[in-house]
Each structure stands twice: as structure tokens, then as C-alpha cells.
Write the C-alpha cells for this entry.
Amino acid sequence: MGGSILGNRVLRKEDPKFLTEGGKYVDDLLDEPLLANALHVTYARSTVAHGKINSIDVSEASQMDGIVAIFTGADLDLQQVPSAFNPMATRTLLATDKVRYVGEPVVAIVSETRSQGEDALDAIIIDYDVLPALIDLEKAMASDLHLYEACGSNVVFDTMVLGLPDNTGEAYFADCEVVVKGRFMNQRVAPCPLEVRGAAASWGENGRLTQWLSTQHAQGAVAPIAAANGVEEALIHVKTPDVGGGFGAKIGAYPEELLLGPIAKRVGKPVRWRETRSESMVALGHGRAQLQYVTIGGNRSGKVTHYQLWAIQDSGAWVDMGTILAPFMTRPMSSGVYDIPNIECRTTSVVTNTTPIVAYRGAGRPEATAAIERAMDMFAAKIGMDPAEVRRINLIPKFLEPHTTVVGQTYDVGDYETSLNKALEVSDYAGWREKQKAARARGDVKQLGIGVSIYVEITGGVGNGEAAKVEILDNGHALIYTGTSPHGQGHATAWAMLASEQTGIPMEKIDLVWGDTDLVPVGTGTMGSRSLQQGGNAVFAVSAELVNKAKAVAARLLEANEADIVLDKDSAAFHVAGTPALTKTWSELAQAEKSVGGALSHSDVIGVTGATFPFGAHVAIVEVDTETGKVTHLRHFACDDAGRVLNPLLLEGQIHGGVAQGTAQALLEEVVYDTDGNPTTSNLMDYAFISAAELPSIDVIHMETPTPLNLLGAKGIGESGTIGSTPAVQSAVIDAVSHLGVDHIDMPTTPQRVWEAIVAAN
Amino acid sequence: MNVNIVVNGINTKGDIEPRMLLVNYVREHLGLTATNIGCDTSSCGACTIHLDGESVKSCTILAVQADGGNVTTVEGLAIDGVMHPMQESFMQNHGLQCGYCTPGMVMAAISILKENPNPTEQEVRAGLEGNLCRCTGYHNIVHSVLACAGKN
Ligand code: FES
Ligand code: FES
């Protein structure tokens, strides 16, 4: 009997295709019969941040070569659609009365070729009454000019409306020996999946709409697409081609995608749409954008007793998912890994004339972690204690039974001190401190900075389980149907490992089906680091059930008792215990079932109760040129505990990618608007998308504390790297210049900001 | 305009619009869709191919400029079903996740080693600066290239 495949460094099944013929992304569906002769849709977008639409003139554009049709919202008879998160906020999918951000779609052009549609853009004349642009969060909060008049305010969500108390201000800290305050801007960033959004739509003779979507959650798109088309959900078929990254920004269906069905119906032909990168930078949702007022208090021996956070979340110009991340992700995680007896956390979400905020890798937890970690650093600096030591003093001790923090969040299992110890030891934290001391003593131009962060986050909080089906084909191969939606995570490999473990069928004979709502009608998609612990868990459980079903069939064929049938996983065949010579293979069983009109398959939705709380510690080492402010990220050590590991190769890949995105936020990336609301980072030349040249190799430190909450003992790993790395890198930069009197630098810690902070401190 | 371009060893021709980019010639005219488009400012490198042996961003070149030239895309690398050592190295080292940057990345990586068969990690990182990846954090891409050079 061979050993278990689980836990092994298994190479990806999906790679040969991607490496030799490339993925089949939505824009690659050139030979799709249902899209033969498809027309192209191009959207004309608002060029002003805030304004009333006076008139739209498409007369010249309509006369241009290859233009088939041009639609305004009125032409398509678009109705107001309420936000799922605040029904008082409503909009039409193409702006009709008002535009609220640069990039908002206003007009749809349908053309024979894509370039004809792009050519027609310039000829569309939209006349606006320009309104003042509300870009600054706090100004928007106070303004009498409201983006959504029916809301009566630009505040569209507040924890006080949920009945939670307001923060009590300075009085809260009356008993503290030491109190430190900060105002941190967790800046707006662009998710930037390398594949931008794209979609296509085609109506069949049967009255059904097939829509291809570059999405993280096909099943979730069915209801909004049905609503946009005014048809029943049964008439909608969503198909997910390969998806070139999502990072949270491709969870929900966007107006540009929802409109394709109605447009295809009007023109009587299938349509395709793919945005340009410059469009994507302003119209794909952004992430983060949270202003934080933080106060931390405690005693001089390093114990933190009080913490107060007011998180003001920029929602952007639509009440999208970003609105609810502060109350439902940042607030519950505000205590971090620390045992702080008194915490107050209010969150307020505000609409502004900027691109809507959606989930972006970490979605609310990086913000919580950044706030408490920066506060811990400032507290440590104030009492003159090593930041790692202050953290250690305040950690929640190891727990293997659920632990509930003072903000009411229950964590499954945690061993934060071990993760800290490992990170400090492997990184040689003490050694770097010595080097730093020497460099400071020498007064070097280039100074070392060391940043430590410890985090805990929520994963698998979305959905209560997942659907899986495993079907055996006549040839003995297996097909897995999953409700998750891989777009780089390697589910074809990981789910095949799980099914192979149970059935003995070799991985190369196991294929994966996902993201097709006819084939997989139930599914919660891939988001919130849920896939393995819910989707993989379901595949594992359903495969085990399928083995039991197969035993019943084998018992019938072998004329034996079901209880006496054993599966020899090495040969992937069943036999009666004690008589291994007479076997029934998976193929034989599948054919036998087929011959009696059945099929050898099992399908179920496997429930999972509760989220899991991965944790870890990161150490970042940077070098800062004190004359220019230039930061070099020298080393990064990441100890991330995601419970039991299915495939270390995939786990490390997730950590590497996460660390890169976290570092990108800490050092480089920021979406910027001018005061009129014009984005100044709307392409990849102006937006500082991190490259290989700006990153070091990443040292991954393994640690496994399994969760009891699923069969696999697995927690999520998709977002941990981002959550842990961002504060560690930011902290390292500040640490490098702290001896010059700098106590805080907002992200991104660009050379200019670092240099300005040094100058200001002098 | 008429063009004749050898693509992956095969003579191809087309009567194309003068403004057609080489990347669109390859993708739409020939249906070789592995080469991707990730930006509109020549910043991302997803469209990297080889033209007459040099790696180029195929969104920066008009198809007519490649007339008479010799193009290789990632589809043309494997020989008799055996992957090029760089493709194999990406597979062995998990140098790809969503796969969108991958064809361009592999083509760029091959060029890096052609010019410098024995690069340091920093040289590989500098060489890949014009090829963006959002998934891998570049760690395994860089190590795929180093491994292919016999280092690691
Ligand atoms: S498509 Fe981005 S560089 Fe060519
Ligand atoms: S693997 Fe997704 S962009 Fe590189």
C-alpha cells in the first residue's frame, strides 16, 4: 500500500496546457460556435467625477463605419437598481441622470470590430453640469452635497446603525500610563489581475442566454444577469473560461457584463466585450481605501489595556462590497492576535466620487492588521521597548479550544507565540538588530530597517459549505464537479489529489469541471480563502461516499456482502476481503451501473460550520537610503499557519503572491485622484504595479496547527501573505529611519514620502 | 496590405489593415491565442514573443513591420510534444498560477538566458522587469529561470 498523496509537493496538472497552448480566456473564444459573427461592445465612460447629464449626442458616432447600434440607458429602458448593502442607494447600469465617478459607463456602442467601437468613442458627445467632486473622505462625510440624495447623507453604513456604540474618545484612556495616537491612511490600490474583465453573451433559439464571464463566482452571477434581462434564472447559463486572476475584484458581476444580454437581444446577434487596461484601472473595483483613527493605551511595562479604532471606509461611488468590509471584516478582527481587555471600534462607510471599492485580497483584514500592528509599533517606540517584545507580552496564549476576543469574535485555534518565535529565529532577528545598531553607529547613508508583524485573519467565512460531485466514466476516469472557481489556485491538481486519495484513481485520470452553471448549478465560488476548506473538503467527503456506493455495486457483481468489499487503492480496484484475485475496477463498476440505467456518481453539498482563523508572523528587512528615501526590500520571512497543508507547492505559491501584493501596497502602489476627481494612475505606466526587480526572494517558514472545523484540518492561505507582509514591510521602512525621529509614514512608503519624513523630523 | 510572416516555422500570409498590431495578427488572424494582451501602454509584457530571435512586446510592433520576419510564440516552443527546457522549468518550479502572464514570461525568460546563460538572481529580476505577473510574486518565476540555467 503506497503512502498518502496528501501533503506532497505535487506538480500542477494544469500547467502543460498553459505553457504550450495558453489558457483559454474569454477573449480567446474565437472558434466558439455560439459566438460566430459576434459584434463588439465598447462603453463610453464618464470623463467627469460628478455631474448631471444634460444631453447625450450619438448622431455623428452612429454614422461611422461599422457602427451597428448605440444605446443610452434610456434607449435600453434601464431601471434603478438598489444596492445590496444599502437599498436607499440606487443606480441605472448605464448612468442616466447623474455620473458619480470618472469611468462610469454611460453609453454602449455596438460595432462590427473592436477598433470601430473605439474609433466611435471620440464622436460621442455627453454634456454635463459638473458638480463639485467629493474625493476626500472626511469632506465627503461632512458635505451637504449627496451622491445619493435618497440616502440623505454620504455615510451609507455605520456600525452605530447596527446598534453598536460610538467610541468614547479620550476618556477611554483615563487609566493608562501611556497613550499613543495615530491617523493612518490605508490607501486605495488597484487589484490589477493581469487579465482585465471580459465577457460575451449569446441568446439561443430556446430562449436561453449563454454568458461567458471572467469571474470568481459564476453561480453568483446568475441572479443579477437574470434580473438585468428580465427573465427567470433557469434561462441563464453562465460559463467561466480560464480566468487570468481576480483577487476579489471579479467576485460580483459588473454593469458592463450585465448589459451584454439586453444588448445582444436588441441587436439580434451575440456580443463580446473586453475592456482595455486603461478602462480597467478606473472601472474594475478598487481595494482598501480606509482611513483609520487609532488610539492605543497601556502601561510602561508593555501591557496594552485599551485600543480604540475608528475606521472610515471609502466606498467609492457605489455602495458595493467595500462598504461592508469595515464593519464585518475589519471590526471583528480589530483585536488581532492580542489579548486586549478593552476595545472600541466604530466603522463608518462613506461614498465619494471615485471608483467603487470592492473586495481585494484580504478584504478588511489587512486593514485591521495594519491598524493594530502600526499601533503596537508606536506603543513600543513610546515606551522604548523592542517591538517584538511588546507583541510577545500582549499575545493571546496558545489555545486549541475556541477563543473569543473582547470584540466578540471567536477564533478556532491559535499559537501565535510559536509563529513569532519561528519568524524571529529563522530571520535571525537579533542578528539584524545588531547590524542595524552598527550601521546607525557608523552613521551610514543606507540604514537597515526591521519590521515584525503578527496577524490572525478570517478565512472560509463566505458560505456554509460547498457542492461537489464525483462521477466515474466508462473508462474508469473520474470527473469532479466543484462549486469553487479556480483562477490560478490549482484546484484541478488539489481536488484530484483529494479524490485520488479516496478512490485510488491516479491523478492523471481525474479531471475538473467548474464555473459552468448548467453543469455545476450550486456553488459559492472562490473568494475569502475558502476553496480548500469548503470546496476541497466537499470533494474529499463526496469521494469517500462514492467509494461506499461503489462497494455496493461491487458486492452485487461479486455476489458478496457489501461489508466484505475492500478497495485496493494501489490498483484502484475492489475485491472481496481475502480474495484479491477477483477484482472489479472502477471502469467495470461504472459500466455495470450504466447497463442498468444508472451512473456511478455521487453528489452532495457538504456543510462546514464556521470560519477558520489562520495566523502567522512576518519579518521584513529593508534598506533605506537616507539621502534619497529609496527603499530596497532585502529579505522577507513569512511564517504562515494555514492548518494542515495539502500541497506545499501550491501553499508557497499563494504566500509568494500574497507577500508581493502586500509589499506592493507598503512600498509602491496607490490609486491617486486629483482634486477634481480625475484619476492620475489610470494605466500601467502611471500605476506602480510591482515588478520582479522590486522584490526579494521570499523565505517561507512552515507551521501547521490543524483546525477541527473540517475533515482536512485546513485553513485558508490565499490572503495570509498579503495580510502579514503589508505591516511588516511598512514597519521596516519606518524602523530604518526611526532613529532620525520619524515615527510614522503612511503607505505607500515611496522615496518621496520617506525623504519628506526624514526632512520633517530634522 | 499583404504580409508574409513565418510563425512557428510555418509561412503565413494575410491581407491586413496597416494599423494591425503584430499581437493581433498572431491572435486573431492566426488564432494563436496563447500570446496575451495585458495593457495598452507597452508595460506588462504579456504579449512578449520572439521576432527574428529577439524578444519583443508584440503590442508595440505593427504586423506590417514584421513582414518577411520570423516569429516564435509559446505555441512554437515544444518539439514533437516535448516542452522546451524553460517550459519544463516553469512546470517543475510552479512558475505559473493563472497562466495569463506565462506565455510572455517564458518567451522573455528564454531571451534572458540567451543573452546571459549564467545570470545572478538580481540579473534575472532586472531582466524580467518589463514582464508583470500578479499571481506568483515572481519568486517561482525567477527560480524557474535560474533552474533552467542550471542554478538553484
Ligand atoms: S500587452 Fe502589455 S506590453 Fe504588450
Ligand atoms: S500567473 Fe497570473 S499573472 Fe502571472
Q: What stands out?
A: The CA atoms of residues 46 and 104 of chain B lie 5 Å apart. Residues 102-115 of chain B form the longest helix (14 residues).
